[in-house]
Amino acid sequence: MPNSLHLLFPLFSSLLFVVGAMTAKRATLLGAGPILVTVCANFCLALCWASVGIVRGDWLLGEFGWSALWPASWIAATFLTGQLCTFLAFRLGDVSLATPVFGVKIVLVALLSSVLAQTGVELKIWCAAGLATLGVVIIPLGADSVATAKLSTRRAAWAVGLALLAATSLSFFDIGVQAYGPRYGAIRFLTTMFVIVGLLSIGLLPWAGGLEQLPRPAFLRPLIIAAALMSLQAISITYSLAQYGDATRVNIVYSLRGLWSVLFAWGLSRLAISPETHSSPRALMFRLAGAILLMISVVVALSAY
Predict the structure, then answer these.
(1) Model-level pTM greater than 0.85?
(2) What distances in angstroms separate CA 166 from CA 77, 79, 102, 113, 179, one per listed residue?
(3) pLDDT for 36-49, tens place per residue?
(4) Of 146, 151, 155, 206, which sits with the fewest C-beta atoms within 10 Å of its C-beta?
(5) Exposed, middle or buried, 152 (CB in 10 Å: 0-12/13-18/19+)?
(6) Other CB atoms closer than 10 Å to residue 219's CB: what's the count?
(7) Which pLDDT tens digit goes with each residue over 49-82?
């Protein structure tokens, strides 16, 4: 894909992520455990990619042998860990509290790209990563949602800690996909890896709270929608990483979800935990400052190539 058009994939994913996260939060409020949301989203992903593999007749093992199972398996494990920690963070805290924390993934991916993948990171990319990280730190400082205000310090700390763990796990996932996707073929590798994710998710079913409530329409609808949206955004961004690499810039654009989470929680309050209060001028200033830093970081990242 010429120039930077592949960055449309993470932009698309950043929007879907926030809507899916808010819908997943709604499902947990109706009785779905975060593990059940994780399992459903991963089953959806596995079915989508298995269908692709069947239609294309394109499976990793068919061409590369059993030795390829190791990278596909450990990358699948990092994805599963990241997904589970993400939904646990949403269960303990507001979406607009946890999502901006994922912005640390920008710096982690840049560091891992340099250290593990042994690829140099341009100065402009480091500057963009720093600006984006500062932006996602500033945005929640102005958050004034009722839900965030009522959270206990301990629950908020757990939510932030789980978000950090999710960001770390998914950083290793991004680097792994970027490294092995081109080697084995993007579609072929992702098909096998996500089928493994689905198989690993079966092991979580004994702890998937809410299974007995699945027949309830009010419960089932947001669960299905959340699983579909989170799967679609994952397909979009992982395909971009496997096909085009460029993990650092992809994550800089993907970090816009921190901005969307605040704006969506404010403008579409019915999809969030609870309605938010009217934003104070101080809150608007923080959000505007964070949004400007995020947009500048994207422009700087795009100018690097």
Answers:
(1) no
(2) 12, 9, 8, 18, 20
(3) 888 888 888 888 88
(4) 206
(5) exposed
(6) 19
(7) 888 877 777 665 555 556 678 888 999 999 999 9
